[in-house]
Amino acid sequence: MDTLSTAPTSHGGLIFPLDMFRPTVLAAVIAELLLGKVRNILDATLEISRHPTLPLALARIHGNVVGEDPAEFWRTNPDIALAASQAVPRQCFAYYVRTGPNRREGFLVAQRGQALAADDSDRDASGQHWPVTRLVDQLRISVSDLANGFPGGPRIELSLMEPTGNDQNLLMTLVGQPPGEAGDEDLDDMGEEPPPPPPSRGGGGGLTQGFSAPPSPSSAGPTSAPSQPAKAPAKAPQISAADDAKRRATERAAELQELQTRSENAAKSLRFVEDERGLVVLVPVELSETSVLSNYTVPVVESSLPDGLPAALLKTLTGRSIDFAVKVEFFSEVFVDAQPLNRPKFEERAKEIDLGGTKVKALEVLAPRLGIGTLLRLGSTNVFVSRRPDAPLPAELLLSLLKG
Predict the structure, then answer these.
(1) Are 361 and 352 in contact (CB under 8 A)?
(2) Does the structure show a pLDDT above 80 at 197?
(3) 103: helix, coil or strand?
(4) What is the mean pLDDT of the segment spanning 157-163?
(5) How many CB atoms within 10 Å of residue 121?
(6) What is the mean pLDDT of the segment spanning 257-275?
(7) How far apart are alpha carbons 323 and 272 in whole angstroms?
(8) What is the DSSP letter of 317?
């Protein structure tokens, strides 16, 4: 999205959608983790800034604990993202970028204390597939925005040694509105709220789909300072626990409705082929949409078929299986040896197979929440099929994806 400066830089941090959260809790979680590693955080601070036009927050750690190479600090401490993901409502990305002769980029996606995906690279001759460069394109920001800490956006700073403050006022500062008179009691029930379901990633949003929901449609940037008397807007931005619960319920209903719509649309656009093992269905969604894809993973067909498949197939498919095939954008969307796959590991482990007269690379992988399958690669295109490499693979259907 932007060209990197010729001067070597090193930076990293946490990116997450700006939503209702406790900044002091986030700081305390990070502080506890670093203290558990016997790190010196006496001068350490957590700076949280908001993008001036988008509902994105960037958290960066400053101080001696980070050292002279922030990118290396964030690369070697991925557990910060896992811990932080339990203090924010949605996904968060830990990223790192180092430019210059020893260029390296990478990120890790975490939610509710679990790693969902990761990517890392220190070599890319084409210059087109650096992980963070591709990530910021999806977020509609730039690498320089991250390097400069979202310049022009509101920001707060907390000591990691003593992460204290009024969460209500801190959050309002990030939102870009005047702090209300209420204190933390308005946020007391937040910890008891169940976390929202994983954001639906329909419509091509990829791993960043959940980053599109702002905390409030009226959120203003730092340049839109209120011109009215202080008393008029002072009480308006206060967010009560009841209002937050109502907003979350509305979001959950919208997500469920979107999932239903995605499932119905996918069912209308299925392509499939039958073979000796059963059926392989090409489902037009992303690998992350497990709620949709799980409908097309049927070990043994019994009395019904998934939506979108002709009822006439039931008789011939009874007692056999149904599998799916789908395109995969990032290697890190699948796992090998309990870790997100990356390109070097794929090149090292994958075997070349003949698929309908075309040589492709194949590797057995795990798709989170879906199970074991095969990742096929032709050129720069990846396809996951929920069958092991030694199972029959429908060449014509899979090649239509790989070459499409």
Answers:
(1) yes
(2) no
(3) coil
(4) 92
(5) 18
(6) 72
(7) 10
(8) H
pLDDT above 70 covers a percentage of the chain that reads: 75
Q: How many CB atoms lie within 10 A of CB 268?
A: 10
Asked whether the beta carbons of 110 and 84 are under 8 A apart, the reply is yes
- The HSE-up count of residue 118 (CA atoms within 13 Å, CB side) is 22
For tokens 């990829």, what's the residue? 206
The position carrying tokens 């497990």 is 290
Q: In whole angstroms, what is the distance from residue 105 CA to residue 146 CA?
A: 13
Q: Which residues contact 277 (CB under 8 A, 6 or more apart)?
A: 320, 321, 323, 387, 391, 392
- Residue 110 burial by CB count (10 A; 0-12/13-18/19+): exposed, middle or buried? buried
DSSP string, 201-243: -GGGTGGGGGGG--S-TT---TT----S-THHHHSTT---HHH
The neighbouring-strand residues paired with 362 are 351, 376
Residues 269, 266: Cα–Cα separation, whole Å: 5
Q: pLDDT band for position 266 (50/70/90)?
A: low
Q: Give the tokens for residue 254.
A: 């919208």
- The helix (H) or strand (E) run that includes residue 31 is helix 23-36
| Tokens 């007269």, residue located | 357
Reported pTM:
0.52
> What pLDDT digit, counting tens, does each position of 332-359 carry?
888 888 777 888 889 999 999 999 999 9
Instruction: Tell me what the mean pLDDT of segment 131-140 comes to.
Output: 88
User: How is residue 137 annotated by DSSP?
Assistant: H
